Amino acid sequence: MRIAVPREIDADEQRVALVPSEMTKLVKSAHSVIIEAGAGSGSGYTDEEYRQAGADIRRSPAELYKDADVVFKVRPPKEDEIRQLRKGAVLICFLEVLREPGIAQKLADQGVTAVALEMVPRISRAQSMDALSSQASAAGYKAMLIGAEAIRKYFPMLTTAAGTIRPARVFVLGAGVAGLQAIATARRLGALVEAFDIRAAAKGEVESLGAKFVDIDLGESGEAEGGYAKEISEKAKEREHALIKEVIARSDVVVTTAAVPGKKAPVLVTEDMVAAMKTGSVIVDMAVEQGGNVAGSQAGKKVMVNGVAIIAPVNLPSQMAIHTSQLLARNLVTLFMHLAHDGKLELDFKDEITAGAVITHGGEIVHERTKELVHDDKTERKNHA
Length: 385
Ligand code: NAD
Fold this sequence. Notes:
The protein is of the alpha/beta class. 34% of the residues lie in helices and 17% in strands. Residues 122-124, 127, 130, 132-133, 136, 173-179, 196-199, 202, 227-229, 232, 240, 257-261, 266, 268 line the site of nicotinamide-adenine-dinucleotide.
């Protein structure tokens, strides 16, 4: 099949969906690769490197899409990109169907087989295809570096002739993939780290990184089926609020990563908590794209409140584009090789990975959860009309 890789059109997107070193497996399996000129420039890969790895370079999106059997992309396609996809073509990218289910109908109408990276089930067999994890880990790393850079203090303890510097105190709220990497990064820099997550399993993971788990008895489990987080009750939120307030007040850097799949992120750091922090402290709100964990945080901005900086970076994986593109490309190639055999796509909907990640096929939405969301969306619009 001919695999096409367009240049990402979002201005803040530096990543590319395929890197030259990940092309070998595709070429060995008799697939060919076409790349839009400059597609890798934001992540440090030149057209020449792609050419040497066996790709054909196309000058424009139109030249690329007209020959594409399969499209590897990072971000969800825009209307104009959807229109250029050929009937029967396969698209693999982050589709964000849970946030914008409407895209599924457009892709089905275009006759595209759309595969959503974010819907690959988080099972051991699919770990090498888990793009949410590879990108979240890089984001957690970067978020902690942003916090370290902003506090105007050392992270490690230092004993010097001019006196002793006490280590920075860091609090990480939400210890999923991003949170754990943020903790590991702060520990490597020598900070004292505390963390909290509503999932009981997180305690051991936090402690294995040399951080202290803040024990909060929520009075209920924060875990849904499959080990994922669920939305907790108002009462449990109050308990969490009272206890994290004390930890936040003593922290120099707070990094928040708390999210609940398919839901708006919970607001965990409230105005009174920010007011209780020392001047010069920093909060990095990693959940801002899901609605934000911190009162007053603004996407893509640094807001100062009583001397406390609230930083809410967007698209952190893009800031690590050289490595995140490499990891994403491996996830994409592995997922594609799982779905294609003998040079063609062979979808077995009895397979958990296929059923979980394929959203549209043969002109229809085939993914049950997306179908429900699209249906709810349409009903809501009708009721509003
Ligand atoms: P996420 O980005 O959806 O959420 C981040 C964290 O926020 C989660 O750990 C969640 O428990 C936490 N959270 C939610 N509400 C909170 C609250 N009120 N207070 C504090 N913390 C709160 O999660 P993620 O990082 O994408 O994934 C986390 C889960 O997925 C874990 O169970 C992880 O073990 C699992 N996972 C499994 C695999 C695998 O088996 N292949 C791979 C990756 C992740």
